[in-house]
Amino acid sequence: MKLLFIQSDPFAWTGKMYLSAILKEANHECEILIEPAEKDLITSIKNVSPDVVAFSPTTGVHHWALDRAREIKKKLNSTILFGGHHVTYYPQVIEHDFIDIVCIGESEQAILELFDKLKRKEDITNIKNLWVKKNGKVYKNDTRPLFDDLDSLPFPDRSLYYDRYDFLRNQKSREFIFQRGCPYKCTFCYAHALKNLYSGKGKYTRYKSVDRVINELLDVKEKWGMESAMIFDEVMLFKKEWLFEFLIKFKEKVNISMVLESRANLIDDEETVIRLKEAGCKCIRMGVETGTDYLRNTVLKKNLSNKTIEKSAALLRKHGILLETYNMIGLPRETLKDAFETLTFNIKIKADYAWCCIFQPYPKTDLTELAIADGFIPKDFFDDLEPSFFISSPMKIEHKNEIVNLQKFFALAVKFPFLLPLVKLLIKFPSNKIYNLIFMMFYVYMTLITTEIGIRGLYKLGKLTGNYWKKKPSKSFSPSKSVPKLDPSHGEML
């Protein structure tokens, strides 16, 4: 049996690599098609000849995924599978007549069981984590317990991407994820909603052993080569004993640079920062989110003060580690003054790159529920979301034009504070292509500084990400607007 992933962005996603590795280990096949890298998507699909075509879109990108799935079903009559974050919190997409299966939550065990049963021509309507449509009836299965033994998983199958696309194979940086789950309860994050989904079904925050992690890094270095490891674990620095063992072995055996993500409170002691630097950490990506304690702690429930962030930033700067910050503007209950306080706070902590997005209300997060309750968005708002959080805001907020424009100048103004008076003037004008160009140029510049992607790699990726800068399709794909609702009797929880 053969699974084919279709995606719109030119990035190598670890989740798909894991699924490919698991399926191939069980003598199934798995391939990937990145639409902008293919001359003709339908022809490429025919050449692959898959048994199942799969999409795992994020909210906003689901517009594109639904459009392509409808086209593929019409022209090829393929079995269509949807999974990923958006679908996990909005499984009702199966109401579309062109979607056959929906996967909710962590998918490795469910997809393997699905393909084994398909190969044996057995019934697939009772597989946990799956919603399955059969003869007009939707079988809604519960989620299985969380998979605990991460060490038993095979290494992610990077050949899925690298064998087909040289622009990914030739990159100098490789991305890794070594743990799952986050113990914090930030209202804007899907992780908290996923934790609620799996309540009572096992330990949510899980780690691979240090030795397993090191072996995976060495395997990638040997097979594909790399000059930098980009580790996107949510709370890699949470367990200090695990972290310190990792840093020692990383320096001894892998000995390349690395980029990590962390909360400020996990790097507010000098010993940790010194150890990170000695092990080869060149950059820390840290969530600031907003410059006001009220918004960060009362609205976002981040439980993190400005003072803690300032201390962490000062320690990183002292020991020569670059600081990339994550920020959001356009938040519920945020004023334009608050948005500028976020900008000036980044100036104060001397962020090397202040990454900033426009807040997007994603399904089932606590912040989305707050935004609905406060009247910033209607209940059925998914069609108003853009494919990128760099484009606009779906919310009814004051000074929307200024907020959208401020995002375009945010990182530039943090890097060059003398531009701030000019930025305050420019954001009053209507949004335009020149502002987008300024943002993209500085985005490219800072990406080159903080990663090992290289100019050629970044150029290739840039050519293939054009759709991320375009507004959503004009046609609606929301079940509430475009397809009939299923009769309640057509679904059952198994």
**What proportion strand?**
15-25%
CATH class of the largest domain: Alpha Beta
Total strand segments: 16
Overall average residue pLDDT = 89
**Main sheet specs:** 8 strands, mixed
Helix content: 40-55%
**Which geometry do the CA atoms define?**
globular
Low-confidence segments, given as residue ranges, are: 473-494
Structural class: alpha/beta
What is the CA-CA span between the terminal residues?
26 Å
What is the level-2 CATH architecture name of the largest domain? Alpha-Beta Barrel
Strand order of the largest sheet: 2-1-3-4-5-6-7-16
Rounded to an integer in angstroms, the radius of gyration calculated over CA atoms is 23 Å
Overview of this protein structure:
The protein is an alpha/beta fold and 494 residues long. The protein folds into 2 domains: 2-140, Rossmann fold, CATH 3.40.50; 172-453, TIM Barrel, CATH 3.20.20. It is built from 20 helices and 16 strands. It has an 8-stranded mixed beta sheet, sandwiched between helices. Strands 8-11-12-13-14-15 form a 6-stranded parallel beta sheet. It has a two-stranded antiparallel sheet with strand order 9-10. Strand 12 (257-262), helix 11 and strand 13 form a beta-alpha-beta unit. The longest helix has 18 residues, at 433-450. It is globular. The two termini are 26 Å apart.
